[in-house]
Specification:
This protein has 392 residues and is α+β, with helices and mostly antiparallel strands. It is built from 12 helices and 20 strands. The protein has a domain of 236 residues: 3-Layer(bba) Sandwich (FAD/NAD(P)-binding domain). The longest helix has 28 residues. It binds 8-demethyl-8-dimethylamino-flavin-adenine-dinucleotide and P-hydroxybenzoic acid.
Length: 392
């Protein structure tokens, strides 16, 4: 088999990239290790920046998101029992975010890909990448026990943090930057109405909590937990009881509980690999970088990488290599700003077992500054809604 761009991974990065390239007449094939059902079963992101919304429109998959997604013009910071509204729209000249689940977005992208007749090989096992330092890269994989080869002009590594693409780069050619946090997030999804119209990010002495949603009838809640905890230790009842303790009386009373549809623990991590291009192999999304979820930036960064990558490849086929040559540098500039913001929001809102009393007081003072200063609130708001692209 041969294609122009071989994409590894059918998560949001790979699917959006495939759609944008196909729109520009560039042939692409996706190899995905899992089944479509498995990919759709992963409950992850919920908040899209305007730039991600615009990109999904450009890819032609925005219709259901606009019909069913919930535009949010603000959120609440609940700091030790006191509410502070962050008026995103008011502080950023009218910019908002869109609450629309990654699962739904992935479903829309999969359907659009199938409708366009584009090839996705699910359950592609033992994928390996070859020849990306030359002009004839190839992927090898097995499907139904038979080894296959896919020849291409370029490989897009959209295969997430544990993927094969970054792992295939010679160690001397890549530099990793990493911060592991000694905490995790325990998430619960339920078919219950959200506790409030807007998201609540709660800082509490028992630990951070987040009240989010997927729709007017489906809620997503998170609790900071220790990394040593197991999901089996958290009955639904225990989760709801602990959440109530971390909220204010208004939210605790309004909370509607119900059986969980999903419960899982995710560790918090910051990670960046530099560069993001190795000859004819490009990394995009979680394959290149990870942020702790506090700033809601992971999926949005994935979208901004594939925006740059799709434009660079389209330019290449039109006769200029300038875009692919500057891909890594342009992505990383944006990536590091989101890394900084996600790290900052994480350190401010969580309880760290290793924080000494001085650290704690400084964090309290910083939060106090953020919520009581227009400059502080604006900094938070403009990062949360997403920084503009420097090429616009
Ligand atoms: P994905 O989604 O991990 O997809 C990678 C795909 O590659 C496949 N794969 C392989 N395929 C073939 N061969 C191999 N060897 C392969 N190895 C892996 C995998 O099966 C998978 O299908 O990466 P992608 O596309 O870069 O997308 C990134 C996003 O999924 C991620 O950044 C977000 O979910 C992060 N995130 C959030 N981002 C936001 O922008 N807003 C949010 O509100 C938000 N909330 C979250 C989040 C992530 C969370 N968790 C669980 C990490 C909340 C949570 C709890
Ligand atoms: C979510 O709804 O899953 C979500 C929302 C905001 C975040 C992280 C996750 O910061």
């Amino acid at each position: 088999m041969r294609t122009q761009v071989a994409i590894v991974g059918a998560g949001p990065s790979g699917l959006i990239l495939g759609q944008l390239l196909a729109k520009a007449g560039i042939d692409n094939v996706i190899l995905e290790a899992q089944t479509p059902e498995y990919v759709l079963g992963r409950i992850r992101a919920g908040v899209l920046e305007q730039v991600a919304v615009d990109l999904l429109d450009e890819a032609g998959v925005g219709a259901r998101m606009h019909a069913e997604g919930l535009p949010h013009g603000g959120f609440t910071l609940l700091l030790d029992g006191v509410r502070h509204r962050i008026d995103l729209a008011g502080l950023t000249g009218g910019r908002e975010v869109m609450v629309y689940g990654q699962t739904e977005l992935t479903r829309d992208l999969m359907q659009a890909r199938a409708a366009a007749g584009l090839t996705t090989v699910y359950e592609a096992k033992a994928v390996s990448v070859h020849g990306f330092d030359g002009t004839q890269p190839r992927l090898r994989y097995t499907k139904d026990g038979i080894t296959q080869e896919l020849a291409c002009d370029f490989i897009a590594g959209c295969d997430g943090f544990h993927g094969v693409c970054r792992a295939s780069v010679p160690t001397g050619a890549i530099r990793n930057f990493e911060r592991a946090y000694p905490i995790g997030w325990l998430g619960l999804l339920s078919d219950t109405p959200p506790v409030a119209d807007e998201l609540i990010y709660a800082r509490h002495e028992r630990g951070f909590a987040l009240c989010s949603m997927r729709s007017k009838t489906r809620s997503r809640y998170y609790l900071q937990c220790a990394l040593t905890e197991k999901v089996e230790q958290w009955s639904d009842q225990r989760f709801w009881d602990e959440l109530r303790l971390r909220l204010d009386p208004q939210a605790a009373e309004a909370l509607v509980t119900g059986p969980s549809l999903e419960k899982s623990i995710a560790p918090l991590r910051s990670f960046v690999a530099e560069p993001m291009r190795f000859g004819r192999l490009f990394l995009a999304g979680d394959a290149a970088h990870i942020v702790p979820p506090t700033g809601a930036k992971g999926l949005n960064l994935a979208a901004s990488d594939v925006r740059y990558l799709s434009r660079a490849l389209i330019e290449f086929y039109a006769g200029s290599a300038a875009g692919i040559d500057s891909y890594s540098e342009r992505c990383l500039r944006r990536v590091w700003k989101a890394e900084r913001f996600s790290w900052w929001m994480t350190t401010l809102l969580h309880n760290f077992p290793d924080a000494d009393p001085f650290d704690q007081r400084v964090r309290q003072a910083e939060l106090d500054y953020v919520v009581h200063s227009v400059a502080g609130r604006t900094t938070l708001a403009e990062n949360y809604v997403g920084l503009p692209f420097d090429d616009d």
